Amino acid sequence: MEIIAISHPEFIPHEAHRINALFREGMLRLHLRKPDGNVADLNRLLGEIDPEFYPKIALHTHHELAAQFGINRLHFPENLRKGTPEFMLEKLKNAGFKLSTSVHDISELNALSTAFEYTFFGPVFNSISKKGYQRVIHDDFYLKNEQKNVKVIAIGGIAHSNIEKIKEMNFDGAAMLGAIWHSSNFQFLNIAGGLGPRQLKSDLKKIEKLQFISSQSAEMSHLESIRLALEAGCRWIQLRVKNQEEAQILEIATAAKSLCDSYTAKLIINDFPNIARSVNAHGLHLGLNDMPISEARKIVGHNMIIGGTANTFEDILLRVNEGADYIGLGPFRFTGTKQNLSPILGLGGYDELMQRLVKTNIEIPIIAIGGILPDDIPGLLATGLHGVAMSSALIQSKEPKETVQKLDEILC
Ligand SMILES: Cc1ncc(COP(=O)(O)OP(=O)(O)O)c(N)n1
Ligand SMILES: Cc1ncsc1CCOP(=O)(O)O
Ligand SMILES: [Mg+2]
């Protein structure tokens, strides 16, 4: 659940100072919306905002200021969107701009260009700041995943007290205006209800550092391997069932979900978006030969983690563009757990790829996978990656609890 702030529509006293303070308190994104503001006043305000926050600002008007301030987020209000040809939006996206827009008619949501990262939709409640701006949905409204082409952020009358309702309605985030600027308390974390935006996002999309991959053998079923990992202390589990009917996998997934729930562990389903959705899993993992991530999003929604496999730098770029939340990069070395392995990367391969990511400013959690042993982890972490996924090393460990404890210490 993302919380986005929208500026006061007029220029207000000490505005830059307030904006800087809100960013320092944890605000992640500000939409600078001054519908009647002239370019000189907007220029002055931007000049007074701390440049470290420019990457978190989206411009609603006077997009020509973006280059001068190094701003890469552009918002297209409804009329501007309708007057901008698709090729222009694509061109901006390909040039590295993050685009957003606003929609007021729900039927337009699933026809939106995927050049947009997200859209505002509303008013979902009666507006706090705009008198007479009445809500367009009812209390029992539910936004179906099939209705969305891009992330949908609720707008209009959003306050701390109704954020839970917004989550229940299946919005991907909420945009606040009146609750911020009409509040006597300018502490952003208080306004968002003690749930800072970082925390709200991290609750749902936090990427853990140790993922256990289930496996089946003559001695152990998938569910038994998952129980072993949970008992050992692992709290991020991937159910990876091969060569079984989907109906049977759904049955195993349902049992895996309640097992994980009883240990407050997160469950990722490998390969099957519909099963991930049916069992309300925490996430889904897709390989390069599985359904594209952008298509799977339409099934599982934007609140579910989707991991994508990569073996090369080009694969990583593809996964990032598709909207993956983490990358399973591998294999590190040969493993019998998976058939048809991609080329082995070894430590040198990870080192090279991680350096290329830093050089190109790409930030996405990278999870190493494939034949990893506990002693490999310090070297892997030194390349800058986020965590590891393991199967056989945990299943074959003589003391799984001690092994997970040791891994947690290294990975924390
Ligand atoms: C964390 C993680 N990374 C990579 C994979 C491999 O996925 P894929 O390439 O689709 O191969 P299969 O696992 O489906 O055989 C993964 N499962 N998890
Ligand atoms: C699913 C997968 N993808 C690449 S290697 C691998 C298997 C990981 O298991 P192990 O840790 O036993 O090698
Ligand atoms: Mg797969």
TrEMBL record:
<feature type="domain" description="Thiamine phosphate synthase/TenI">
    <location>
        <begin position="212"/>
        <end position="394"/>
    </location>
</feature>
<dbReference type="Pfam" id="PF02581">
    <property type="entry name" value="TMP-TENI"/>
</dbReference>
<feature type="binding site">
    <location>
        <begin position="238"/>
        <end position="242"/>
    </location>
    <ligand>
        <name>4-amino-2-methyl-5-(diphosphooxymethyl)pyrimidine</name>
    </ligand>
</feature>
<dbReference type="GO" id="GO:0004789">
    <property type="term" value="F:thiamine-phosphate diphosphorylase activity"/>
</dbReference>
<keyword id="KW-0479">Metal-binding</keyword>
<dbReference type="InterPro" id="IPR036206">
    <property type="entry name" value="ThiamineP_synth_sf"/>
</dbReference>
<feature type="binding site">
    <location>
        <position position="270"/>
    </location>
    <ligand>
        <name>4-amino-2-methyl-5-(diphosphooxymethyl)pyrimidine</name>
    </ligand>
</feature>
<dbReference type="GO" id="GO:0005737">
    <property type="term" value="C:cytoplasm"/>
</dbReference>
<dbReference type="GO" id="GO:0009229">
    <property type="term" value="P:thiamine diphosphate biosynthetic process"/>
</dbReference>
<keyword id="KW-0808">Transferase</keyword>
<feature type="binding site">
    <location>
        <begin position="335"/>
        <end position="337"/>
    </location>
    <ligand>
        <name>2-[(2R,5Z)-2-carboxy-4-methylthiazol-5(2H)-ylidene]ethyl phosphate</name>
    </ligand>
</feature>
<keyword id="KW-0784">Thiamine biosynthesis</keyword>
<feature type="domain" description="Thiamine phosphate synthase/TenI">
    <location>
        <begin position="54"/>
        <end position="180"/>
    </location>
</feature>
<comment type="similarity">
    <text>Belongs to the thiamine-phosphate synthase family.</text>
</comment>
<dbReference type="InterPro" id="IPR034291">
    <property type="entry name" value="TMP_synthase"/>
</dbReference>
<dbReference type="InterPro" id="IPR022998">
    <property type="entry name" value="ThiamineP_synth_TenI"/>
</dbReference>
<dbReference type="InterPro" id="IPR013785">
    <property type="entry name" value="Aldolase_TIM"/>
</dbReference>
<feature type="binding site">
    <location>
        <position position="338"/>
    </location>
    <ligand>
        <name>4-amino-2-methyl-5-(diphosphooxymethyl)pyrimidine</name>
    </ligand>
</feature>
<feature type="binding site">
    <location>
        <position position="290"/>
    </location>
    <ligand>
        <name>Mg(2+)</name>
    </ligand>
</feature>
<feature type="binding site">
    <location>
        <position position="271"/>
    </location>
    <ligand>
        <name>Mg(2+)</name>
    </ligand>
</feature>
<dbReference type="GO" id="GO:0009228">
    <property type="term" value="P:thiamine biosynthetic process"/>
</dbReference>
<dbReference type="GO" id="GO:0000287">
    <property type="term" value="F:magnesium ion binding"/>
</dbReference>
<comment type="pathway">
    <text>Cofactor biosynthesis; thiamine diphosphate biosynthesis; thiamine phosphate from 4-amino-2-methyl-5-diphosphomethylpyrimidine and 4-methyl-5-(2-phosphoethyl)-thiazole: step 1/1.</text>
</comment>
<feature type="binding site">
    <location>
        <position position="371"/>
    </location>
    <ligand>
        <name>2-[(2R,5Z)-2-carboxy-4-methylthiazol-5(2H)-ylidene]ethyl phosphate</name>
    </ligand>
</feature>
<feature type="binding site">
    <location>
        <position position="309"/>
    </location>
    <ligand>
        <name>4-amino-2-methyl-5-(diphosphooxymethyl)pyrimidine</name>
    </ligand>
</feature>
<keyword id="KW-0460">Magnesium</keyword>
<comment type="function">
    <text>Condenses 4-methyl-5-(beta-hydroxyethyl)thiazole monophosphate (THZ-P) and 2-methyl-4-amino-5-hydroxymethyl pyrimidine pyrophosphate (HMP-PP) to form thiamine monophosphate (TMP).</text>
</comment>
<protein>
    <recommendedName>
        <fullName>Thiamine-phosphate synthase</fullName>
        <ecNumber>2.5.1.3</ecNumber>
    </recommendedName>
</protein>
